[in-house]
Amino acid sequence: MIRTLLARPGPAYVLVPPDSSHRERRRIPVAEHRIEKGQVHYKWDNAQRPVVDIESGDIVHCETNEVTDGQVVPGSPASALGTIDFARLYPLAGPVFVRGAEPGDTLQVDVLSLETLDWGWAGLIPGLGLLPEDFPDPYLRHFDLSNGRDTALRDDIHIPIAPFCGTMGVATDDPGQHDVLPPTKGGGNIDTRHLVAGSTLYLPVFVRGALFSAGDCPSDSITLLRAYQVKVEISDP
């Protein structure tokens, strides 16, 4: 679950005149929106049509697929990594159009909750990563995430599940389509493992509506090529 706020004009609370002559701070209810599974895009593009329009301070729920967008599934062999369609990497939920957002504003993104689904994977894709010459062959390891707390590397070693949102960003003012990797001036694939539930990300706004998107949710840290990739629901427990 993600909440977006504009630095201008401070939307979570507003001053409204009460019945008396005094002014008081009152809570203004926010709306909640859901981006349906499959409402994704694979490139940054400021011409991309938004899938949802929200007010500043609203809450957005979405479910993201793992980085291959379903090309790797439970039981896939390592050879599946050699036939990946790279045009389908990094499915991003969005874009989200934030009403009132204009170039020069700052978008505040509060990550309210992140939940893994029941499965994830880690792998080495030939030719990619930090040490491609040392690891020329594909490797794929599946992980059971169903208990929501940890996953077994082996019987006596368990890895805590700590999902974060690897890609969160906005469309820039540069025309055309742009790859999700590497990051852009609008954020994007920054893979900061500290962007867990409870964290806040501030992004510059370059185009009207900000056009915010999110996805690519691994767990723990990126090593060699990738931490284990998970399907994540950015939503309430």
Question: Count of DSSP E strands?
Answer: 20
Quick one: CATH superfamily?
Acetamidase/Formamidase-like domains
What fraction, in percent, of the residue positions are helical?
Answer: under 10%
Structural class: mainly beta
Q: What is the CATH topology assignment?
A: Jelly Rolls
User: What is the overall number of helices?
Assistant: 0
Short description:
With 237 residues, the protein is mostly beta strands.
List keywords for this structure.
237 residues; mainly beta; Jelly Rolls; 6-stranded mixed sheet; 20 strands; 0% helix; disordered C terminus
Structure description:
The radius of gyration is 19 Å and the shape is globular. It has a single domain, classed as Sandwich (Jelly Rolls). The N and C termini lie close together (9 Å). The protein has strands at residues 2-6, 13-16, 24-27, 32-35, 40-41, 43-44, 52-54, 59-64, 92-98, 106-111, 115-124, 139-144, 150-154, 157-160, 167-170, 178-179, 187-188, 200-204, 212-215, 229-234. It is 0% helix and 38% strand. The protein contains no helices and 20 strands. It is an all-beta fold. Strand 2 (13-16) and strand 3 form a beta hairpin. Strands 1, 4, 8, 10, 11, 12, 18 and 20 form an 8-stranded mixed β-sheet that branches. Strands 5, 7, 9, 15, 17 and 19 form a 6-stranded mixed β-sheet that branches. The model is unreliable at 8-26 and 221-237 (pLDDT under 50).
